[in-house]
């Protein structure tokens, strides 16, 4: 089984979006560089950010997201972001009625079922967990091996927290990796067991 990595872009005060689910300038680092990050050509980052981000993206076999993220992105039009093979959506509602059954999205009820499905799909590759409420639930349950953060120089003041509802202290190792990109600091921590 591959490792499980909680991943997301975050403000220096710990938010992944404002209270209206808007990221504001959090993703500016993905647009301000000169090196294409994916085949779309829309995402361009610094060379340092590319060297850190692209290899990680290439190791992802499945991503776990919450239904809220799925809904606000409109399911990425059925194409997983970043070239990920599979997306597992945690939801207590059925998949959209008009959803393409051939799209590599899997709908599960609960974080444990989502993790089991994602690990099955990913095999020995990385299971990525999006930051926020679902990521926080998996983190609190002790199911996360590593935390990767793209920290950007903005203070949002309030909004959606990186670790979601986690209310207890958890210790991390490291950081094991610190990479400075343009308008972003990439950090990687192992979760202490």
From TrEMBL:
<feature type="domain" description="Bacterial bifunctional deaminase-reductase C-terminal">
    <location>
        <begin position="4"/>
        <end position="170"/>
    </location>
</feature>
<protein>
    <submittedName>
        <fullName>Deaminase</fullName>
    </submittedName>
</protein>
<dbReference type="GO" id="GO:0008703">
    <property type="term" value="F:5-amino-6-(5-phosphoribosylamino)uracil reductase activity"/>
</dbReference>
<dbReference type="InterPro" id="IPR024072">
    <property type="entry name" value="DHFR-like_dom_sf"/>
</dbReference>
<dbReference type="InterPro" id="IPR002734">
    <property type="entry name" value="RibDG_C"/>
</dbReference>
<dbReference type="Pfam" id="PF01872">
    <property type="entry name" value="RibD_C"/>
</dbReference>
<dbReference type="GO" id="GO:0009231">
    <property type="term" value="P:riboflavin biosynthetic process"/>
</dbReference>
């Amino acid at each position: 089984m591959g490792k499980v990595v909680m991943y997301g872009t975050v403000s220096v005060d710990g938010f992944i979006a404002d209270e209206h689910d808007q990221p504001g300038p959090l993703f500016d680092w993905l647009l301000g560089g000169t090196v294409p990050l994916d085949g779309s050509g829309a995402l361009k980052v610094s060379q340092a950010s590319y060297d850190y981000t692209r290899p990680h993206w290439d190791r992802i076999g499945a991503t776990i997201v919450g239904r809220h993220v799925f809904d606000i992105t409109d399911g990425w039009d059925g194409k997983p972001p970043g070239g990920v093979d599979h997306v597992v959506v945690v939801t207590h509602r059925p998949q959209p009625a008009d959803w393409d059954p051939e799209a590599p999205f899997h709908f599960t009820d609960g974080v444990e079922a989502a993790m089991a499905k994602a690990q099955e799909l990913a095999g020995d590759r990385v299971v990525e967990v999006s930051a926020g409420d679902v990521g926080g639930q998996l983190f609190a349950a002790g199911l996360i091996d590593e935390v990767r953060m793209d920290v950007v120089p903005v203070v949002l003041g309030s909004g959606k927290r990186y670790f979601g509802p986690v209310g207890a202290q958890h210790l991390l190792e490291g950081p094991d990796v610190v990479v400075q990109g343009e308008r972003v600091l990439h950090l990687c921590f192992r979760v202490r067991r």
